Amino acid sequence: VLGIIKGKVPGKTVALRADIDALPIDEETDVPFKSQNKGVMHACGHDTHVAMLLGAANVLSQITDKINGTVKLIFQHAEDLTPGGAQEMIKSGYLDDVDMFYGSHIMAQMPKGVVHILDGPLMAAQNSFHLTIQGKGSHGSMPQKSIDPITVGANVVNGINSIVSRNIGPFENVVISFGRFLSGDVFNVIPDKAYIEGTVRTTNKENREFVEERIKTIIDSVCKAYGAEYELNYVHGYPALINDKRASEIAKKTASEVLNANEYTDAERSMGSEDFSYFAEKAPSVYVFIGGGEEKDNCGYVNHHPRFNVLESTFLNGSKMYVGFALNALNEMM
User: Fold this and answer.
1) Which end of the chain is more exposed for a tag (fewer CB within 10 A), N or C?
2) What are the φ/ψ torsions at residue 169 (nearest 5 degrees)?
3) 27 is catalytic
4) CA separation (Å) from 255 to 158, 175, 205, 278, 328?
5) How far is Cα 96 from Cα 12, in angstroms, rounded to an integer?
6) Peptide bond into 83 cis (omega under 30)
7) Candidates 19, 27, 47, 79; catalytic one
8) Which residue out of 21, 99, 172, 332 is catalytically annotated?
9) Which residue, among 7, 149, 112, has the nearest Cα to 67 in the 3D structure?
10) Cβ neighbours for 171, distance < 8 A, ≥ 6 positions apart
């Protein structure tokens, strides 16, 4: 969904983005607006992003005499589902005239209402790998007749885990994590297959390409050494999210104008990923985090947890930032 607010004075175009999708999670909160659909929950706070942008839209639509240009309101689908909805919205052509993008994300376990801003790399690129190792099954008493996919897989995991510690510089930001290793059904039978899945997070193109090459080399070499076959699906997810310096400065200026003194701070880099990065590749952009409350505020569960919750009072600062950024960015680009 794309909303358009035209100012009385023509000028540049700024886009404000909120993602709208939920997650396949059973909600375990006690809030009155708890999801009524089993297996579907707004566990990442995208419903709050919609609320904040709608609040900003309400304000902006009433002050068009102060808007020097055009504001586009992006309500984007499928952020949490690779390849993401941002690319589809860009391909539609409706954002071709956008000169600057702004986006924000609410975060639990962060001080309530505090806006976190950082120029440069903010979030990581995300790839995933899905590996099937084909060995040869046998009874546990006769391992010599097998090609044990568990042993092969264990060596693959150990080899890949050495990439960060032995091939990447200590001041580089790279994370490799395994989320799935499945094999076998009973204790005394060596199975014939193993399934391994993991995620790779990097903050620059060089490391992204290097880690992919190393993972593929390790898998191929280990499987050959043990005589196993394999199938690998290496999936390219979202690129790294890099905040533009000028857009970040406008966001910082906005925060200093519309927030209290203790409600703005520098952001810490995150190894999470976001398809807002595609907007950031298209035009100068900035993405900020908004604190949704801490454990003392009954907001002690991280995003994507079935008990995820944030304070509604924090939404006001999100709406203020949307409005203020749009006005300041359009003024500065005149």
Assistant:
1) C
2) -60, 145
3) no
4) 46, 31, 31, 24, 11
5) 12
6) yes
7) 79
8) 21
9) 7
10) none
- At which residue do the structure tokens 């519309």 appear? 258
Tens digit of each residue's pLDDT (9 = 90 or more) over 118-143: 999 999 999 999 999 999 999 999 99
Predicted local confidence at residue 257, as pLDDT: 98
- Write the CB contacts of 321 (distance below 8 Å, at least 6 apart in sequence): 102, 104, 115, 251, 254, 255, 258, 259, 288, 290
Residue whose structure tokens are 């983005």: 17
Name the residue with tokens 């100068």: 284
- Tokens 């005589």 sit at which residue? 227
In degrees and rounded to multiples of 5, residue 137 shows phi and psi of -75, 160
**Which tokens is 291 given?**
């604190």
Overall average pLDDT of the 320-326 stretch: 98
What is the pLDDT averaged over residues 67-74?
A: 98
Can you tell me the distance from the alpha carbon of 159 to that of 182, in angstroms, rounded to the nearest whole number?
Answer: 18
